[in-house]
Each structure stands twice: as structure tokens, then as C-alpha cells.
Amino acid sequence: MDIFLQQVLSGLATGGIYASLALALVMIYQATDVVNFAQGEMAMFTTYLAWTMINAGLPYWVAFAVTLVIGFVGGVVIERVIIRPVENAPILAIVIVTIGLLVILNSLAGFIWSYVQKPFPSPFPPQPIRFGGVVIGAHDVGAIAVTLVVLFFLYLFFRYTPLGLAMRAAAQNPMSSRLSGIRVSWMLALGWGLASVFGAVAGMMVAPIVFLDPNMMAGIQMYAFAAATVGGFTSPGGAVLGGFLVGIVENLVGTYVKFIGTELKLTVALAMIFVVLLVKPSGLFGRAAVRRV
Amino acid sequence: MANSAVRAPALATAPSLHVAGLSTVWWQTAAIIAALVVALVLPFTISGFRLFQFTQIFIYAIALMGLNILTGYNGQISLGHGAFFAIGAYTTAIMMDKWNIAYGFTIPVAGIVCLVAGYLFGRPALRLEGLYLALATFSLALGVPQILKYFEHWTGGSQGIVLLKPNAPAGLPLDSDQWLYLVALGVLIVMFALARNLLRGRIGRVIVAIRDNPLAAESMGVDSALYKSMAFGISAAYTGVAGALSAIAIAFVAPDSFNVLLSISFLTGIVIGGLATISGAIFGAVFIQFVPNWAQDISKAAPWAIFGLFLILFMYLMPRGIAGGLKVLWARLGRIRPGAPADG
Questions:
Q1: pTM
Q2: Which of B124, B301, B312 is the closest to A100 by Cβ?
Q3: Domain of A81?
Q4: How close, in Å, is residue B191 to chain A by CA atoms?
Q5: What domains are defined for chain B?
Q6: Does residue A237 belong to any structural domain of this protein?
């Protein structure tokens, strides 16, 4: 039983990280109907910026905050400069542009910081925390807490601020929003900025666990896709729950199903995506797309 | 807005379009003959690695033709065709290595295995549209190397399988590079002719109708589920044949050469080459074969950054791909009145 609880708890920790990235994917999908294949690489890049600042002697939380700001500005700039020109192009053209962005960021990071793995500091104490018979790393608890705090602020922003309302409106009905004076195009850019912030949080929380290298987000982005699919691409709350769920399932399957172990971990994400898409394509909490014909 | 994720190039070249007094069909035929002549002369003018690169272009072009049937003509986005390429390659490799079967026989078998695999994958994928299908296939692409390594007994694990490079049949004065080039060219011509006939006929029209308006197609009595999964199967078969040829030409298969970048380059290839065009598969194949090399020449340190830049610029300048861009150019040329000096 202890092993079970242990695995569930560490599943929650990695799940929090998947949840952040899944949230980023869902935000962009909701606003623009585009899946941003470069989301993970954007997160990786901002994490490298944080690493550079911490190495230059900045205190962790200062670097953390500055990184979020850079992430936000970077996300907005990317939308304005790179995505905007293809806004009305066929969807596949936009997919190709985000893939182009993916290889550019990956290659640039390797060029600037090299492909050698780097340790990334955790802001939380190294001593593990005990709950009865279960031991959990302080970093894991911290990662969960940070995810929940970010989520809480996001909820407040979307629920109680005029800007949040405008963004939701722009995503839901661009035409009517434009008619009532909302600058829809800028709302999309803000969406990319916010998504990039969640990505940055996910990157900085996962880097102490997997170490920093330009390819660190590939597997995590996969799990974030799985999380977003499980929760539903149309539901931010669902994506977060999906993230935790996927984290737990990943850990439990890895522990209890012997032939899977760690070798086929990616395949587990693949299987999860498949099962959900086949059984309930809109995800557990998403609404099914209804089309007028 | 049509509700399919992939929009067809709206520009269809009118058959009556004349450039320099000659019809478009005439020019097309001339271009195809010229290309064939160049392709037949090529193996006797260049050799070694250069020739191998052209063999690779033919192989990619077959794979891209397959993906184009699915994504371009039928509107189903696949980011996982590297998986079928891998199945084709491993079918050939296992047959040659374990059972000593001549390479020529393995190519159709690889095609049939992939036809079945594609159909089986396409059947459940019917429920997914647009980006959801892109995601499902993307995860397939990511999972392939791991799965290949897992079945070590058959696939040789991460070591892969080393094959013998086939020689030209006795009596022909060709080295094995030249022979492989000609084999690939022959398969390419057969596959393209088949694809052209398929797409021009009734089945082709049905496939395109499903992309453009699935509801209207179904109300006309089209069995959309059958045709969509058949499109998946045929598409996978093409890619599988390409994979088989690739295994023979490289004489080696290993899991890590079928990574997600391969699938990404396939999709990139057809979008850059031109969706729903037959020539687009060739342009796309040239792009994915040569542009990464050029990128490497420009910047040794970050070649993929240059490649990514190319991708993005291409999408800005020609969102309908090279074939689409050429069509626009052609239409412009044709609008110049006969008698007026036509330049270019």
C-alpha cells in the first residue's frame, strides 16, 4: 500500500508539470484552433534563460520572475512576428510554421548552450518530506504547489478581470467580439504570451528532475499532449486534471506492469492518447464540437 | 470556409490556357519527357554519393506521394508516416536477413503489409479529424523507435540489421549504385503512374469529394468510412514501398533513423512541395533531401535553425507550396496575350 501511495504522490508531482504544459497547449488551441508543436521548445528555451540568470548570480525567485516576464513578452512577439503572417493560411501551413519554430529553438539552444546536460537548481530544500510511511521529495511538493498557485491566478484573471473576459470572448466568438470593440488579434497574442508563461513554469519545475538539455521537453510535450487529450482540448480545467491523471497512470503502469517498465514509457502516453481519442474524442471534460451544416 | 482541415488549391489551371502558343497539356508532357531524359542520363554522368542522393529523392518522392494521397487529396493529416516507412523497411530487412529472400520480392510484400497496417490504423482513426488525427499520428511517430527497440528478437534492437547491398544482375555493365538508382526510378515511375490513374478516376474524385464536403459526399451514396480507411491503407502502402527501397539502398536499418524528424520531414515535404498535386511529391522530395544539406553549408553550428527558417519563409511566400506557386506563375504567363513578347 505504501508503494502504491508513493507512486501516486510522485505521479501527482510530474503530473503538475504535465498540467502546466497541457494548459499552455489548450490556451493556444482555444484561442486560435492551432496546436503549437513548439510549445515544449519554447519552455526549454526560457528555462535556459533562467539557468543563465541564476548562474550569473541572481537569486532563484528573482530569476524565476524575470523568466516569466521574458516568457510572456517572447510569446507575444512570436505570435505577432511569426504566426500573424500565416493567420489566414491553411491550417497545415500554420502547423509547418510551428514545426519550423520547434527546430529553430532546439537548434539555437544547442548552439548557444551546447548539448551537454546541465543541472538546474531547485528552489526547495533537498530533505524529503514524510507523510506516515510515505516519503516525497520537497521539490515534488513544491512543483505541485507552484502549479496550483499559477492555476489559481489564472482562474482569477479569467473570471474577474475585464481583460480576461475579453480574451475568453475573443476565443469563443471572434466576430461578435470584434463588433463590440475587442481587439481580437491582440487577444490572441496575449494568449500566446500566457501560454508561454505556463510553459516556462513547467520547464523550470521539470529541469531539476530531468536535467537541462535542448531535447528535455520532447517526452514531456508528449505527455502534455496526452494530458490535454485526456482532459479535452476545449477545457483548461480538464487539461490540468488530465495532467495529474496522466502523471499518476504513468507512474503506476511503470511500477506494476512489469513488461513496460521504463522502456516503453512513451508508448504508454501513446496508448492513452489513442484510447481516449477512440472512446471519447473530445476528452473527459471537453465539449464535443457541434457543427452547423 | 470548408470544414475540412486541408484546403485544396483553388487554382485549377484551365485546360485552354496557352503559353507561347502551346497548350498547358503540351508543356506538361514536354516537361515530363525532359525530366525522364535527364533522370536516365544522370547515373552515367555523376556517381557515388551524389547519385545515392538522387536515389534517396526518388524514395522520398514515393513516400510523399503516399502521404499526399492521404493528406493532400483526402484531407486526413498524418504526422506519423515515418511509422509506415519503418514497417516497410523492417519488413524488407527481416525477410532478407532472416529468410534470405531476394530483395525484389520483399518490395511488394512490404507494400501489402503496410496496406493492411494502414487500413487497420485508418479504421479507428475515422473518428478523428484535423488536429486530433495529427496528434494521434504524431504520438505514433514518437513511439516508433521505442517499439522497434522493444522487439529486439526480430529487429536486432538498437543495433539494427545490416544487409547486403544488391549488385546489378550479371551481364549489365552497372555498379550497384547505378543499379539501385534505376530500380528506384522504375518503382517511382510505376507508382506515380498508378497514383495518377487512381486519382484521375472515380476513386480519386470520391476521395477528393470526401475532403471537400464529407456530408454532401455521403448523401450522394459514398461509403465515406470505407474510402477514408482505404485512402489510409493505400497511402501507407506507398510509404511502405518507399521504406523497403530505402532499406535496400542504405543496406541498413536501425530504430533511431525512424525518429519523429522523419515523419515531420514527410509532412513538411508535401506541404512545401504542394498539397494535392502529383508534381508536389517530387518538389517536396528534392526539398527534404537537399535543403538540410544547404543549411549545413550555411551554418555548421545550427543547421536545423536555418532549416526551420527556410520552412517558415516558404510558408510566408508560398503557402500552397512549390506546385501551387508554379501554378500561379503559369496562370500569369498565360494571361499575356499571344503576340505580346512573353518573357521567361
A1: 0.80
A2: B312
A3: 19-217
A4: 25
A5: 19-335 (1.10.3470)
A6: no
